[in-house]
Specification:
With 73 residues, this protein is mainly alpha-helical. 44% of the residues lie in helices and 8% in strands. Helix 1 links the parallel strand 1 and strand 2.
C-alpha cells in the first residue's frame, strides 16, 4: 500500500491494523480544535492507543508520516 494513508483517533482497532498494513500507512489524529478532541490530553491518548507499539512505529504514526505526506521540512 503505497498510495493510501489512513487516520484514526480513539479507535481501538486502529493500532491493531498498523502491524498488518504497515506503519507507513497510518496517521494518528486528535481532532483538534473540536470539543471532543483528545487535546490537551493528546500525549496520554497516544500512550493509551499506541503504547503497545515500538518507538519507531509511534514516531511514524504521530508525525513522520504527516511530514512525508504534506512534504514538510
Amino acid at each position: 500500500m503505497r498510495q493510501v494513508l489512513a487516520t484514526f483517533e480513539e479507535e481501538p482497532f486502529g493500532p491493531q491494523l498498523i502491524p498488518l498494513l504497515g506503519a507507513d500507512n497510518f496517521m494518528w489524529a486528535c481532532d483538534y480544535p473540536h470539543p471532543d478532541s483528545t487535546w490537551p490530553e493528546s500525549r496520554k491518548a497516544i500512550d493509551e492507543a499506541l503504547g503497545g507499539l515500538d518507538e519507531e512505529t509511534v514516531r511514524k504514526v504521530t508525525g513522520e508520516n504527516c511530514k512525508r505526506l504534506y512534504k514538510l521540512g
